[in-house]
Structures are given as C-alpha cells and as structure tokens.
Amino acid sequence: MPLATGTKLDGYELLGLLGAGGMGEVYRARDSALRREVAIKVLPAFVSRDPDRLRRFEQEAQAAAALNHPNILAIHRFGEFDGAPYLVAELLEGSTLRQLLQRGPLPVRKAIDYGIQIARGLAAAHDHGIVHRDLKPENLFVIKDGHVKILDFGLAKLMHRQPEADATAATVTHETDPGMVMGTAGYMSPEQVRGGAVDHRTDIFALGAILYELLSGKRAFQRGTSAETMTAILNDDPPTISQTGANIPPALQRVVNRCLEKNPEQRFHSASDLAFALDALSDSGASPAVGTQAPARRSPKRAVVWSITIIAVVCVVAAAYFTTNRNGGPPLRIAEYTQLTHNGHAGYARGTDGSRIYLQSSVKLSMQQVSVSGGEIEPVSSITLPEPELLDVSPDGSTFLVKSYEKGYSPSMPLYAVQVVGGSHRYLADAADAAWSPDGKLVAYSTANGDIDIINSDGTGARKLASVGGAALDPSWSPDGRTIRFFRDRDYSLWEITSNGANLHPLLAGWHPSDQKCCGNWSPDGKVFAFSSRADRAGTSQIYALDERRRLFRPPANEPIQLTSGPIRWSAPIFSKDRKKIFATGFTLAGELVRLDPKSNQFQPFLGGISADSVAFSKDGQFIAYVSYPDDILWRANRDGSDRVPLTSPPMLPNTPKWSPDGSQILFTDDEGRHACIVPSRGGSPQRALPEGNGLESDPGWSPDGHKIIFATGLPRSSESSIRIFDLASHQIATLPGSDGKFSPHWSPDGQYIVADSLDATTMYIFDIQTQHWATLYTGITGWATWSTDSRFIYFLRYGDDRAILRIPITGGEGKVVVALKDSPFTGTNNEWFGLDPTDAPLLMRDVSTSDVYSLTLEEK
Fold this sequence. Notes:
With about 850 residues, the chain is mainly β.
C-alpha cells in the first residue's frame, strides 16, 4: 500500500504519490530543512526482503549519488523508514521521452540535441566506471527547460576503475551472475542478449536504438515477442531510417548505424566520441538548444575568431580521426548480406572467375558452381577425376587445382591442374593443400611431412620453401606474389612466409591467442586480408578483416576487424574480382537424433529427435549422457530424455562420454585440452581423470569392472601413439603390449578383448587379454568401433562411396552391412558419430543443418 500523504520521513513530508518508478513507489515530498520539493523513491517492505531487489535498489542509489552532472538525476540522500529503504532525488517536472514519442518522431535538431545531452551524461557515468545497462525512453526525462536527465541506475554495473578509460575494463563479478540476461529487450545490446560481459559500449548501442526511435518514430528492433526481438538484435539490421519515411541526413544515419553495430569494437569508442559526432551535426554546435535566435552579423574581429575556432575544430577532428583510426583507417564493415543460393545444401565457396563461384560439395566429393548474382547450384560436369576436392581457381579462371581421393584418404593425395573447359588434367605433386600464385605460373602446396613447397604450373621445378612444423593448409598468395599465408593445423593459427622461403612467422600471434584462426584470402588489390576465426569448437566461425591499407595518417592495421556476427558459421571468405564483395558459405548447424527401426530398417527420430551427439547409456539402461550440438554441453537425463541435468559448461568442450559401470561417474574428453575428465553423474565439478604428464589423452574408457581407465596417447594420423591403462587403485599407468601405432581403444563388456584402430584408420585390430596378442580384424577405412552388449560383435562405420554401418564377429571374417548410409547424411561435434542403444540398434545424428552461399558487400566507413 502507498504511504499516506503527510507521512514524515526523516525530515521529509510526503505531499502525494507520483507513481511507480522502477522497483519502488515515487512520492512528491518537501524537504523541511532546505525548503525545497524533492522526489522520494521508496522500496516497499515486502520487496525489500528480496536480497536481489534490495541490492539493486542500493546499487541505484550508490551509482547515481557518485555522479554530479546536469544530465543525470541528482541523488541527495539514501535512508530507511520502517524497514523500507528510500532515496531522495531532485524533483523533475516534464515528460519522459516515451511520453514525447507517443506524439510521433521528433524534429531532427531536437533529436540530435537530446542525443548529445544523453551521451554527455553517459560519458560522465562511464568516467566513474558506471554502465547504466537499461537505457530506454522510459528512463530518460525531459524537463521543461529542455534538459534531459538520465534516470534509474537500478541495473547499473560498476567497473573496476582503470588509470585511463578502457573498453576492456573488468566488471565486478558479484554484481550480476555470469550468463544472466539483464535489461529491456528492445534496447539491449547483442552482448547483453547473449548474457555475456558488458561495458560502456552497451549503453552506446542502447542510445543508438533510442536515436533511431526519436528520428523515425519506430523502434529499431521490435517483433511480436521478446524472444523474437532479441533474435532480431543478434541477427538483423534495422531498416534504414529513410525507409521509415523520415528525412534524415546521411551523416546522421551513419552515426546511428555505428551505434548499432553488432560488434562492440565497431561502435563509437566512447560516449564522448558519440557526443562529439552529434555535436558536429547540430546547427549551432551547442547544446542544449532551447529556443531559436536570429543570427547576428559578425564583425571582422569575430570573423577572425571564428576562423581560428574553425581551424581548431578541424585540427581536433583530424586528431580524433587519426586516434580512433590508428589501426588502419576507416573501419571496414559489411553493409549488406545477399543470399545467393536457397537450397540449403551449398558447398564450401573455394574460388571465383568473376562470373561464377565454384564450390566444393559439403555432402560428397564433387564440385559445384553458381552465378555471382545467385541462382541454382549446378554441378561442374567437366571434371572426370575420381573423388575430386576443389582447392583453388586460377587467377584467370581457366584452371582448377584439384586433389583426388582416387586412392583413398592419406595426408597427401594426388594434386592436379585441371582445365575448366574440357577437364584435361596434369599431375603436379602429392599434396595436402595448394594455391595458385597471382600470375598463375606457380603453385604453393603443403606436404605430408609438414613442408610448404612451390612447383611450376606445368609440374616441373618443385622446390622446398620451408618446414612449418605442421600441415600448412589453405595457403593464399598476396597479389604482389611476395607473401604466402596459411593455416597451420598444429596450433590452429595463421602463419606467413615470403615466397622465397624467408621470414616464417605466425600472423596475429598476440591477438586472441586461444582462438582458432583459419583460412584467409587477400582482396585483389592486396589492401585487405579476410579470414575466418572462432573462439573454440563450440563457437561460430566469424569473418574478420585485416586492413592493410597504407595512406596518410593510416598506418596498416595490427588488429583485425570483425565483419560478421551471429549464429551462422562462415567458411573461408573469398573476394570478388572488384573487391567490393566477399563470397562465403554460411552454415546453420543442427542435428536430429535417430534410431534404426528393426522392423522397417529405416532411421526414425529418437527421444523426440533432439540434437544429441555421442549418446551413451548407463549399464542398467535407465539413464543417458550426451553432448548437445552444436553448443557442446554434456547432459545427463533419464532414458526417455526427461529430467535433464547439465554436467559441464563452456568453455569446457566435452567429447565421447562413457558411464562408469556403477553409474556414479561419467568419463569424457575435454576437447579443448584433450584431457580425460570425470564428473559425478548426479552433477558436480569435472576433474582430471589421469595424472599429469601423459600428453594428449584420447578416447578414454572404463574397464568393465570400473577399476581401470584405458586411453590412447597422440591423435589420429599423428606420428606416434600407444594405448595405456591407468589403475585407479595404484595410480600406475602401463602401456598395453604391442600397442605402438594403435589408437582409439574400446574394452569389450565381458573384459576379454580390446579393439583399436591403426593411426591412419585403415586397419582394425583386436587384442586378446588372455593371450596378450593382437590380431587384424578388418582392413579398410573405418571409425567409431562399438561393442555389442554381449561382446560377440563389433559395430563400426565404413567410409567411402559405400558408407555403411557394419558388424563383424570377434573371430574375424567378412563385415556384414547392418544399414547402408549412402543417402543418410549425418553430423555432430565429431563430424560422424554413431552408437548403439541397449538393444544394439544403431543411433546416429542425422544432419538437418543448412548451408547457402552469401554475397557480403564490403564497405569502408
């Protein structure tokens, strides 16, 4: 119930209820000591008992009281009355911006004026380490003299103060739990929507949305529900203000657009910079603008003063321009996304001849093409090589570089130069990857032993450039032919070397060192290098650009600019011939868990078709563990999928969970560090399962009695590996006899056998624990060996054109096809996972992802 008029609150007499304000009730009151009227915000007693609301109310008082600025509501006092906290603030008379907007959009000059004032108030708050986080028209009050006041710091976040303003200032972690979404949907920044860390640039985004609404009379992001609105904030750009019917100067539109950038790095660096930009657009350069006045005639002396002022302003603008663009000039941005294909199954964009974009199929080994203006995807029918993989298109568009899987998979495969017209081909070398030089006379290619070599386009004159310490994938030449950049798979990083073999070094070594940087290409003029990068396996691959232009006041960039954001995973970007567009394939990942129905011999959705990878059943069959895809979280649930409990959280990247025989623990691999980990199945903190010093710990599993853990060292196709067994009682590790060069061990349920693959996945072996001998079980490219529940059979995948799930008895012999998979594309964190349910019915995750080619218009801001 509201307090009665006339109630005394520590020297303040309540004169009447003004209404609700945020979490409390707001009263008009009189300060008897200073003889002035004030506003009092009171938190009701029943609400004050909620610790979170009380903390936020106190936070509002502390945040606002720390500020003294004409564009921020002044707080006079904080106290408590009958157990109810209250704060005393200046009394405002006027209207909120929301009330003003009910009449329609504001005149341009007034909108700019209000924007300048709000930006200046935010700048003062940010200078004190305070971020508002809930800026919206309801929290902005215009008093009768035209001044704007920022209200309600109830969601304010206090940052640790730095010696200088710093966009990366750490936040006080207790203020808001990580991952909690706080704010108002239509004005939240993308990082707020994701529940991520926020800083002062969140307020700049909100102010951009407010400016958009002031100028157009429409909200920048408004959909039918809050969830749809938040999705729009993450993925969509609002219509240009001019499309709403408003007549807005282009320069002002650019200011609003910059505020609304998805990537915080591309917004204004500070609220002060935003205020400066708006001030430069105002009629007089002064704020607030209250009333109008005829311009006075200037005397010669005033003209000189004005000239000096203009020169000074130009110098300041130039200095600010140089300072804010010290990383390579005006930032680059994607101005428009155009979807070129619409079948949902486009391959990876690999090159262009100017009129066609050539693709490598993402479903099977084949080549495709589509017009640069969009349309139907067509096959490249001239290629006669078996199992072709397109690597590059020559600069003149006449010749492909194609790797052929004619002899199956190996680290290096036959590389051919193939004529686009006619399909005639010439063998060049065995290679892992390759790229044309800008004049088409040379080819740079990587080898199985970690070298990067060069060969003439006619197949002569092969010569080694350097050993790079890993596979040099996706090489790209600079347009001047002097530099080659490539992705090194050993550390998921970009490297570069001169074309004569000198100066081998990592590119961007200090930039987000843990990120996986991959697959880049230069623009035809050599001024921009675009590449894809993601933070971890679970993250989305986004496109970044390294601005390497050299102009006056524009040194080349030393940090990339993020061009894309959102849930789409982007393939390696390639440039159009005129440099104005970037072509890339965008992937939206999703899977559907399916089970082979024994009656129909068809795969049917299982557990409602959830997107679950690496599904594992407890020994009693009552519970499951799985990794959700593509967000990579380990879950435990009842067998029917109910009562889900998350067992891990990012940045941990779980892989291939295994239940302990007693059902109390789940063993898995943390893919980020390739370490075996254990987590209680009821929930808790994951712990390392094995002692330090094993190197990479791959494919860990339990012995049937639960007393030991078996695992492999090394990685598939690495130079060495062995299988080891860790005794949980003695903490001793022993190497399985004769296991050198073997990988991916799996213990049979009866404890009598261990099955393992060769490092190149071309041979399956079985180890008899009683005789301590290995025997060859199957020869062929295989994966995902899984034991039947009775230990009599091993199920596995057979790769190739006749891909299938096979079953083979432990005594050897011919593998029997359980189900052919030729027309059953499947996916997952591990690309192609399959497992068995307790009845030995195969499970897999059917791919329901989509992929299409996009044209991204590159713009210099």
